[in-house]
Structures are given as C-alpha cells and as structure tokens.
Amino acid sequence: MASTPASATPILVTGAAGFIGFHLSQRLLHDGHAVVGVDVVNDYYDRRLKEARLAELRKDGRFRFVRHDLAHREATAALFDELQPELVAHLAAQAGVRYSLEAPHAYTESNLVALGNVLESCRQHRVRHLVFASSSSVYGANPVMPFSEHHGADHPLSLYAATKRAGELMGHSYSHLFDLPFTALRFFTVYGPWGRPDMALFKFTKAILEGQPIEVYHHGESARDYTYVADVVEAFVRVLARPPEGDPGAIDRLTDPATGTAPFRVYNIGQQAPVKLTRMIEVLEACLGRTAERRLLPPQPGDVAVTSADGGDLARDTGFRPAVTVEEGIPRFVEWYRAFYRA
Fold first, then answer.
1. Beta bridge partners of 65
2. What mean pLDDT do residues 194-198 have?
3. Residue 42 has pLDDT above 80, yes or no
4. Nearest-angstrom CA–CA distance, 158 and 162
5. Which SS3 state, helix, strand or coil, does residue 321 take?
6. pTM of the model
7. Calpha distance 101→114 (Å, rounded)
8. pLDDT in tens, 245-273
9. In this structure, what is the dihedral angle of CA atoms 60, 62, 67, 71, given to the nearest 10 degrees?
10. Residues linked to residue 266 through DSSP beta bridges, in sequence order
C-alpha cells in the first residue's frame, strides 16, 4: 500500500464524518499523519452513524475534529488561517441524486458555495494539493462506455451531478488562474463498512433483515461499477501524494477535459467491472442467508442505467487499479452491519 509523504502540518479532510471521509481519515492516521477533520454533521441521514464514525477517529490522538459549515466564508477563511494546511482532501458535500430533487438549495450551498470558499482559502494559503471528491454521475447521458475522463461530461441528469461537474470546472479555473494544483476524483458507486444508509446495499440489507420488500429500480436491469471503499481510499492516498504539474506548452491538451496546461487532473476511481443489480442482490442474499422479496420499479428521475469506469489513467499514473469484487466486499459490509446494529 502506498502512503502520502509527511506534511509539515495536519492534512485537512473535509466531510470527515461522512462515509469516504471517515475511511480516508482512518487511513491517513494509520500512515502516521495528523488529521484535522471538518464536518457540519447534518441530518441528511442518521447523525448517530456520523457521530460513531467520529468516535472511532477520536481514538487516535492525532485526530482533531472541527464542527463547521464551509459555506460560511469568513469562518472558513479563519479556519485556514489557523491550520495553514498544505494538503486538503475536500469530500464535504451534500450527497445523493434523489434528494437533489427535493432540496436543491442544500446542493448549491454545500457543493458550490462551500467549494468556492475552500478554493479561495487554498489559493490564499498556497496549498500544495487540493483533491476534490467528484462523482461518476457527471457523465450523465454520455452513451460511450466505459466512461473516460477524456470524454465530455456536459449532460448531467441531476442537480447533484451538475454541482459535481461545476466543482470540477471551478477547480480548473483556480488551477489555470492561480497555479493551484487541483485533482478531481470521480467515484463510482462506493460501498463497504460504515456505508451510507441512503445507498442501495445498506437499504437492501436493512429491509431483508426486517422482512420487508426491497425496491429494485430499472426493473433490476441496471448495472454499476461497485467500488469497495478501501480501494477508493488507496487510490485517493496515492493521488494526494502526487500534485499535478502544469505544462503551458502542451497545446494539444488545451481542450482535454481530464488534463490541460494548468496543474489540473481528473481521474476515475472505479472497479472497472460493472455488476448487474440482480447479481448484487444475489450476493447479498447469500451473505444474509435470506431471500429478498423484490418489488420491481421503473427508473427514478436522475438515475442512469449503467456506469462503467475506464481506469487506465489512474493505473498508469499511480500503479493502482481497484480490484475488490462484490463477492469479497459485500460480506465485509454485512459483517460490519450485523455487528454495528446487532442484527
């Protein structure tokens, strides 16, 4: 496993109470870093799960937690003034495609205003590398599979996806104008222990154990590049350790969405092996020793039928490809779920 070179100051992880931010913070602490975690700890899903994640992180004395809303400009600037971070992992965001249909302002505040404040603070403090958590949802209606960072991503199908794509473009502008090293990571359906209750694997597990039917959208015909959280974190750590370098003379890359002449980069982080939803359910049923009652439903607004990652750039530049299969990863999630909820 790769590790991030030591930073003179703590690594700042925003969204540290969230699913991936929690796992990334754990990994950085394991590698010997001090970590400052920032999170507003909203009630989008059960706060008790978020607080339990934070309790795990606090077991390490090198972890410090700051409860803070990054959409507050002056307070965010003051936080950066105090911490003087060199490396920033920005995972704080309002997650969820479907919720963006109900609460759009939560996405503009958390995913756009907050990011703008973080970008400006990183510029002011000459941060060595800002890594931004984006999403495979930015590909939206793109019909070309597998999804490549070098293809366009101009037709997002939800406000959530649009804010993530906008975040990438905001990062590119700061990289181009102010020489800020910025990398966007497009996550593909991340799952694993301590996962989010709004995700299918979590919801299906809960429903099956409670004897309730599961709602299977796209009539079960959808497929996802399910990516195990430890693989995502390994890729994140490797990318964080290698800030992109600009190449002003690379005229051929002026219009490449994934690179460019500025110190800017985009990577997919996906398992590169789409799994049908029905297969995911079969593996889960085997782990639980129960058969699910399936309620087949049409697609929901904002959903895409298939996601598939092209991970060639990540492998070339970092030497890593996500490899944990659902047959390996789902049992680990179920083991955690049973222990955490005593189910």
1. 37
2. 97
3. yes
4. 6
5. coil
6. 0.95
7. 20
8. 987 766 556 678 888 889 999 999 999 99
9. -130
10. 184
**Residue 228 is a catalytic residue:** no
Sequence-ordered list of residues with C-beta below 8 angstroms from that of 159, at least 6 positions apart, any chain: 100, 101, 104, 107
Closest CA to 229 of 193, 202, 282, 254: 193
Catalytic residue, chosen from 107, 139, 160, 267, is 160
Rounded CA gap, 145 and 308, in Å?
6
The answer to whether residues 264 and 177 touch, using CB atoms and an 8 Å cutoff, is no
Q: What is the pLDDT of residues 129-170, one digit of tens each?
A: 999 999 999 999 888 999 999 999 999 999 999 999 999 999
Taking every pair of Cα atoms in the chain, the longest distance, rounded to a whole number of angstroms, is 62
Q: Which residues contact 306 (CB under 8 A, 6 or more apart)?
A: 145, 222, 223, 224, 274
Q: Which residue has the tokens 């497929």?
A: 223
DSSP state of 218: G
Q: What is the pLDDT of residue 6?
A: 60
Give me the helix-helix angle, 47-57 and 19-30, nearest 10°.
10
| Residue 263 · residue 244 · CB < 8 Å | yes
Beta strand pairing status for 87-90 and 129-135?
parallel
DSSP 309: B
Question: Helix, strand, coil: what percent of the chain each, to 5?
Answer: 45, 15, 40
Nearest to 181 by CA among 91, 57, 90: 90
How do residues 207-226 score in pLDDT, each as one tens digit?
999 999 999 998 888 999 99
